[in-house]
Amino acid sequence: MKTSHCQIRFAKVSDLAALVAIEEQSFSQDRLSSRSLKRWLSASHGLLMVAEVNSELVGYGLVWCHKGTRLARLYSLAVLASQQGKGVASQLLIALENETVKRGRSFMRLEVAVNNQAAIRLYEKHGYHVFGHYSDYYDDHSDALRMQKTIRRNTAFNADKHTPWYQQTTEFTCGPAALLMAMSSLNNTPMSQLKELDIWREATTIFMTSGHGGCHPLGLALAAMKRGFKADVVLNTRESLFIDGVRSEKKKAILHTVHNQFVAEAIVAKMPVRYQELTLNDIETWLAAGKAVVLLISTYRFDGKKSPHWVCVTHVDEHCLYVHDPFCEDKKQLAIDCQHVPIAKADFSKMASFGSLRLSTAMAFSL
């Protein structure tokens, strides 16, 4: 079949009606609405590009660039039936990848129906490989494959060991969820909400800026030691943690009490705690030794909220640090968005510190 030579450009508001028509002709379910497409036209974190043949809009591609990371996701790719098999999809995909690289992203991920062999062949032709599977993913209950490609040269991903991903089941249990992932990577520890909540009760700071308290690094490390793991902690302060986010003096007093109790228990348990600034070298050394690492980050670069958040580090390479993020925002994210999330090393110092006191801390675990 003859290849169509098409013009690839960024979509404009005037393209909306044609985009809706392509969407309706291409998909019988899981469609993007006109309102959603209109929102993507101006989304700062989105790339919406179209393909034109003889001044007619014949296809589009949409990429979501994840804030604060080197990860992007191909959200949708559609070409009119009359132009399929003529290279339009390939030209769109290449243009999207090039523009995504210009945005500083290194990896492109996507989901594709297991029965969509034409699309799978297209992605495989362009270097995408399967790295996961979703059951009952689409509205018709069919399954989807997860695929990924390194789109930036001199960047590759190859995790040192398998780290299963676990989604936190409450807004305040990122610490236990991250710890469960770390422990499971070492000895296949079962992960469940019951275990998640047990760890939270053992490690919680009681209060936080609002709502329930998060988890103290020493509390998490003690919980791991209780379960038979060795722990190593780096913490850059001896002061009580998370105090600057609480206004009530009564709550601050309780935070001081809880902190001092964790310190006393860590001393009794002979836990190795190094009170010093956390560096990338600490994490690289731990990973090289086969240890599992849990890291505290600020979510500001993810969502602008400046919240303390625990993640599980899965890998590090020349360019990036990779983490499993236990938080997956309903209806906006998929599990694929939260696994092996690449964070540029250049951003580490800003992301791995929290609050006005610039708290930095991480833990390493081994058997």
Would you write up a description of this structure?
With 367 residues, the chain is an alpha+beta fold. The protein folds into two domains: 7-150, 3-Layer(aba) Sandwich (Aminopeptidase), CATH 3.40.630; 174-366, Cathepsin B, Chain A (Alpha-Beta Complex), CATH 3.90.70. 33% of the residues lie in helices and 25% in strands. It has twelve helices and 14 strands. Strands 1-2-3-4-5-7-6 form a seven-stranded mixed beta sheet, with helices on both faces. Strands 9-8-14-10-11-12-13 form a seven-stranded mixed beta sheet, sandwiched between helices. Helix 5 (174-187) packs across helix 6 and helix 6 (193-203) crosses helix 7. The longest helix is centred in the last third of the chain and has 20 residues, at 249-268.
What order do the helices and strands come in, and which of them pair?
Layout: E1 7-10, H1 16-26, H2 34-42, E2 46-53, E3 56-65, E4 71-79, H3 88-102, E5 107-113, H4 117-125, E6 129-134, E7 144-150, H5 174-187, H6 193-203, H7 217-226, E8 230-235, H8 249-268, E9 273-275, H9 280-288, E10 292-298, H10 300-303, E11 308-316, E12 320-324, H11 335-338, E13 341-344, H12 348-351, E14 361-366
Parallel strand pairs: 4-5, 8-9
Antiparallel strand pairs: 1-2, 2-3, 3-4, 5-7, 6-7, 8-14, 10-11, 10-14, 11-12, 12-13
Helix pairs in contact: 5-6, 6-7
